[in-house]
Amino acid sequence: MREDAVGTPHGAPIPDVPVVEPLAEVASITLGDIQSDPQLSMFIASADRVMDAMGYTEHGFRHAHLVGKIAYQVLRRLGFSQREAELARVAGYLHDMGNALTRDGHGQSGAMLAYNALRDRADSADLMLIMSAIANHEESEGSAVSPVSAAVILADKADVHRSRVRRPSDADLAGDIHDRVNYAVEQSFLRVDSDARTVSLELTIDTKISQVMDYFEIFLGRMQMCRHAATAIDATFQLFANGQELA
Questions:
Q1: Which of 75, 81, 164, 240 is most buried by its number of CB atoms within 10 A?
Q2: What is the band of 12 on the pLDDT scale with cuts at 50, 70, 90?
Q3: What is the pLDDT of residue 55?
Q4: Which top CATH class is 31-245?
């Protein structure tokens, strides 16, 4: 009797090889893990207090939750893996905590805080994606270096809204164009069309408070960064203000 082609003993049946279903691709660290960490919560709260003292808009838990949620949705709607989406949610939640140490270069300082807090808890590849997304979310010093990073950029820059203005008095709004533009935005929505692969920032702006041109005066660099970030995830960025497409 001839020998089996795969080398089994003479006459022995070829064993069935069980089909192993691939394990679901999951992140080694989740938003739930992050939110239950008192040290990371302290960093976010401290960062927001620093920003308040410096006269900046809200950068606390509201902003952190929203950026994480939007970043997750962007990647899932565009067909990226659950793992990448969850890492984007984590990075989005943590992206501004470096402000607790310094405003300039807060992406880099935030990445170092994330490394120290997560190095013994997250897979090294996951941690690298989280750190790079945190480090590269600001237009002055960063760019989209991965889908995780691109999603965080888009989510962060989409949070323009009057609820972020801390002191919306007439005097403050007249003196600070950033507060005035944010306060003028009554609605802000980041719409993802998975079929057309477009990411559209839709703004409703009260032009009695601020003109649309004021928005471009201070946020042009951010919109350019969003355009590049969308390209990094094979999508097109669009900007609408009061129903009119601007970019």
A1: 75
A2: very low
A3: 87
A4: mainly alpha
Q: Locate the domains of the chain by residue range.
A: 31-245
Which pair of tokens denotes residue 18? 């069980």
> Which 3-state string (H, E, C) describes the chain?
CCCCCCCCCCCCCCCCCCCCCCCCCCCCCCHHHHHCCHHHHHHHHHHHHHHHHCCCCCCCHHHHHHHHHHHHHHHHHCCCCHHHHHHHHHHHHHCCHHHHCCCCCHHHHHHHHHHHHHCCCCCHHHHHHHHHHHHCCCCCCCCCCCHHHHHHHHHHHHCCCHHHCCCCCHHHHHHCHHHHHHHHEEEEEEEEECCCCEEEEEEEECCCCCCHHHHHHHHHHHHHHHHHHHHHCCCEEEEEECCEECC
Q: Which of 36-50, 123-137, 207-221 has the lowest mean pLDDT?
A: 207-221
Q: What is the pLDDT of residues 163-200, one digit of tens each?
A: 899 887 764 676 678 888 999 999 999 999 999 999 99
